[in-house]
Automatic annotation (TrEMBL):
This is Pirin family protein. It comes from the Bacteria. Residues 311-338 are annotated as: Disordered. Residues 315-324 have a biased composition (Basic and acidic residues). Residues 204-307 form the Pirin C-terminal domain. Belongs to the pirin family. Residues 59-141 form the Pirin N-terminal domain.
Length: 338
């Protein structure tokens, strides 16, 4: 076990959270949408918002790039993966592979963009008589150079199937990685860095009741880096050190670190992994290793649209009546377990 201070660095949380290799991006969307209208958008005035580019959080919510329904209409990706953890509300996914999904209630979508995919992520407001809260994490996980041009891959993990540990006022949801006491881990997409046996990738969400304690076990691999995001609650002791504001904490991954919660419920997200340790060239939705590869990504997208867009508009949703579902490339559908 390491003898260093367990907190290696601390940064305040803004809209976009700081990340460590192999992660590229992490954002926590927490929108308090009003009741919905007949078009599944907000039954509220959109005056004063920059429609198409609204990140204002006016009245506690944003339209983002949506014009009628909040969300993110069709946009491309290449060279990495998106992991979307839907905590509250619903997300309507559509993509250039022909896959579609409506997911929420703890479901996770894991999308390997690989050599290129176009997708949309819309937030339909189905409840006309009550608010429509929507909360999610979107995490970008890098791909190593050898797998950046892998075939795109669509994966859905239903919330009921995600391994979880509940004990002593603590609930840990294990999206990736293994945790003693939790059921067997889920298999990440085949080309993911998380699928490599020595990558030591873990994605956990933690909920701690007032006064609860939990010890983060030491990482299994050498060279692993770990970030703990304390984003809800008033105070948390981390390895005996008081953290009294929301923060991104880089922890010594070689050490087991005890978390002791204060007098209000607290929540954390933990991301860890062995760094890919390759050059990163990023421009908007493309993440490669060189600027030449970025230029090639733009050229390929302009030429091929990464397979085209098989939907009637740029911001499709799945209507007012559908429940959660996933339709995979090729047409096979599955539903969450009942």
């Amino acid at each position: 076990m390491s003898n260093t201070h367990p907190i290696l660095s601390a940064q305040a949380l803004g809209f976009q959270w700081p990340t460590l290799d192999p992660f590229l991006f992490c954002v926590h969307h927490n929108d308090h949408y009003p009741p919905g209208n007949a078009q599944l958008g907000p039954a509220a005035s959109l005056a004063g918002r920059q429609i198409g580019q609204d990140f204002s959080q006016k009245d506690g919510w944003s339209m983002y790039h949506g014009e009628q329904v909040p969300g993110f209409p069709a946009h491309p990706h290449r060279g990495f993966e998106t992991v979307t953890i839907a905590r509250r509300g619903l997300i309507d996914h559509s993509d250039s592979l022909g896959a579609a999904a409506r997911f929420g209630e703890g479901d996770v979508q894991w999308l390997t963009a690989g050599r290129g995919i176009v997708h949309s992520e819309m937030f339909p407001l189905l409840q006309a008589d009550q608010p429509n809260p929507c909360e999610l994490f979107q995490i970008w996980l890098n791909l190593p150079a050898a797998r950046k041009m892998a075939a795109p891959h669509f994966t859905m993990f239903w919330g009921q199937d995600i391994p979880a540990l509940q004990a002593g006022g603590v609930e840990v949801s294990v999206v990736a990685g293994a945790l003693n006491g939790a059921p067997a881990p889920l298999a990440p997409p085949p080309e993911s860095w998380a699928a490599q046996p020595d990558a030591d990738v873990a994605i956990w969400t933690l909920k701690l009741a007032p006064g609860a304690r939990f010890t983060l076990p030491a990482a299994q691999g050498q060279g692993t880096r770990r970030m703990l995001y304390f984003f809800a609650g008033t105070a948390l002791r981390v390895g005996g050190h008081l953290v009294d504001r929301h923060a991104a904490l880089e922890l010594d991954a070689a050490a087991a670190v005890e978390l002791v919660n204060g007098d209000t419920a607290a929540e954390c997200l933990m991301l860890q992994g062995r760094p890919i340790a390759e050059p990163v060239a990023q421009y908007g939705p493309f993440v490669m290793n060189t600027q030449a590869e970025i230029h090639q990504a733009f050229s390929d997208y302009q030429r091929t649209r990464f397979g085209g867009w098989p939907w009637q508009n740029e911001a499709p949703h799945h209507g007012p009546d559908r429940g959660r579902f996933a339709r995979h490339p090729g047409g096979a559908e599955d539903l969450p377990p009942t």
